C-alpha cells in the first residue's frame, strides 16, 4: 500500500476553489489535489449530495463521497446568502482555479457569472462542468451520466449481441468529463504563463460521451453502418474476446497475425493459423463466430489461470477475468501503489499518472477541515 509522499507535487502553489458536487467536478479537484494543488472544497450547509449515496457509509458519510474528495480541505458556505457569496469572493481573490458544476444560469443569478468574475479576477481559470453546455438545442439542461450514456450512443453498443442496450457498469461519462476538465485546467494554466490571463474552461458530459465512441464512430464515418453490440468482443479485430476454458474465462487480446499464430501454438492447434479464414486480421474478424468455436474447443481442457501465464510468456496479451476485490488485492496493484491509505482508516484508488520527480502525494483525507487557502 502506498503511504503519504513528501513531494510538493507538480501543481504545488496552485490554489483551487472547488465548489462543485457529485462526480465530474469533484473528481477533477481530487486529481489536481493529488498532484500538489491546494484544493479548498466549498459545500452547501447540507453538504454534497453524494454524502448520502450509500450504503456503505463511514462515520455517516457514504463511500461514494470518500472516493472523490481526498486531498481537499472542506468548508461550508450558503451561496444563496449575500454573506456566503461575499466569503466566496474573498476566497476567489486568492484562487488560481474555480471548479463549478451548477445548473447553467445559477452563478449568473447570484451575480457570480463569468463576465463579472473574469473582470474582477482576470487571472482566474474558471472550469465549468456541465451536462450539455450552456447553449444549443440541449444547452443548460441538466446532465447525468446514465442519461448521457444513453443519448450519446454508448448504451447502444454495450452489452451482449442478443441483449438490449446496457449502461456501462461505472460512471464512465462523469469520470472522463472530470479528466477532460483536468486537461482543460492544465491547458489554461499553461497558456496563462504566456498571456497572464485566465479563461473559461468548459467540460460537458455530452461532448465527453461522444468522444468515447471510438472505434464505433470511426467505423460509421467510413461505412455508414449503425454499430451493433458485440458483447466482450472487439468490433474490428478478433480474437479480442473472453473465451471459455475448463476452469474460468480468459480474455485474449490478439492484435496481429504473429500473436494469433502464437496463440494457436500455445493451445495446441498451430494449423489453425494457416486456415485461409483466419490467416489475416480482417478475415478473422469476418469469420469470428467459427473462430471462437474452434478456439474454445481447443481450450476446453485448459486451466484458465495456467493458460494466461503461458500466453503472456509467449507474447500473447491475455488476462483472467477478476472481480473488483481480486483486482484490488492483486500484488501488482500494490506494486503500482494503486491503493493508498491515510490515517483514520481512509483507503482509496491511487493516482494513475506517475511523475518521476514530482509524484502524486496523499495529504488530506476527505472531510479535513479548512476555511482558507494554505500559506
TrEMBL record:
Name the domain of life this protein comes from. Answer: Bacteria
State the InterPro entries in the record: CoA-transferase_III_domain, CoA-Trfase_fam_III, CoA-Trfase_III_dom3_sf, CoA-Trfase_III_dom_1_sf
One Pfam family here: CoA_transf_3
- This protein's record includes keyword Transferase: yes
Q: Which GO terms describe its molecular function?
A: CoA-transferase activity
Keywords annotated in UniProt? Transferase
UniProt name for this protein: Crotonobetainyl-CoA:carnitine CoA-transferase CaiB-like acyl-CoA transferase
Amino acid at each position: 500500500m502506498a503511504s503519504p509522499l513528501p513531494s510538493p507535487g507538480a501543481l504545488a502553489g496552485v490554489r483551487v476553489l472547488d465548489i462543485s458536487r457529485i462526480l465530474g467536478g469533484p473528481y477533477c479537484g481530487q486529481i489536481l489535489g493529488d498532484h500538489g494543488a491546494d484544493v479548498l472544497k466549498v459545500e452547501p450547509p447540507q453538504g454534497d449530495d453524494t454524502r448520502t449515496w450509500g450504503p456503505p457509509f463511514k462515520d455517516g458519510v457514504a463511500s461514494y463521497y470518500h472516493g472523490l474528495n481526498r486531498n481537499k480541505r472542506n468548508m461550508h458556505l450558503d451561496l444563496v446568502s449575500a454573506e456566503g457569496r461575499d466569503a466566496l469572493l474573498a476566497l476567489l481573490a486568492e484562487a488560481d482555479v474555480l471548479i463549478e458544476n451548477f445548473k447553467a444560469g445559477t452563478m449568473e443569478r447570484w451575480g457570480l457569472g463569468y463576465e463579472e468574475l473574469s473582470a474582477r479576477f482576470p487571472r482566474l481559470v474558471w472550469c465549468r462542468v456541465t451536462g450539455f453546455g450552456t447553449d444549443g438545442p440541449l444547452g443548460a439542461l441538466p446532465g447525468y451520466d446514465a442519461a448521457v450514456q444513453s443519448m450519446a450512443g454508448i448504451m447502444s453498443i454495450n452489452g451482449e449481441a442478443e441483449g438490449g442496450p446496457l449502461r456501462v457498469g461505472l460512471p464512465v461519462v462523469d469520470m472522463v468529463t472530470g479528466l477532460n476538465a483536468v486537461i482543460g485546467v492544465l491547458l489554461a494554466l499553461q497558456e496563462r504563463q504566456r498571456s497572464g490571463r485566465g479563461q473559461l474552461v468548459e467540460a460537458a458530459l455530452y461532448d465527453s460521451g461522444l468522444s468515447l465512441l471510438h472505434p464505433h464512430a470511426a467505423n460509421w464515418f467510413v461505412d455508414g453502418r449503425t454499430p451493433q453490440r458485440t458483447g466482450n468482443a472487439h468490433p474490428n479485430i478478433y480474437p479480442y474476446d473472453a473465451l471459455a476454458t475448463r476452469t474460468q474465462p480468459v480474455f485474449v487480446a490478439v492484435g496481429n497475425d504473429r500473436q494469433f499464430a502464437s496463440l494457436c501454438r500455445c493451445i495446441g492447434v498451430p494449423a489453425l493459423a494457416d486456415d485461409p479464414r483466419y490467416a489475416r486480421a480482417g478475415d478473422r474478424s469476418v469469420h469470428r463466430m467459427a473462430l471462437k468455436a474452434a478456439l474454445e474447443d481447443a481450450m476446453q481442457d485448459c486451466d484458465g489461470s495456467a493458460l494466461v501465464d503461458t500466453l503472456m510468456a509467449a507474447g500473447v496479451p491475455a488476462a483472467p477475468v477478476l472481480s473488483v476485490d481480486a483486482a484490488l488485492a492483486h500484488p501488482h496493484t500494490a506494486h503500482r501503489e494503486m491503493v493508498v491509505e491515510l490515517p483514520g482508516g481512509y483507503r482509496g484508488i491511487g493516482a494513475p499518472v506517475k511523475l518521476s520527480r514530482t509524484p502524486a502525494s496523499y495529504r488530506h483525507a476527505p472531510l479535513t477541515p479548512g476555511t482558507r487557502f494554505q500559506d
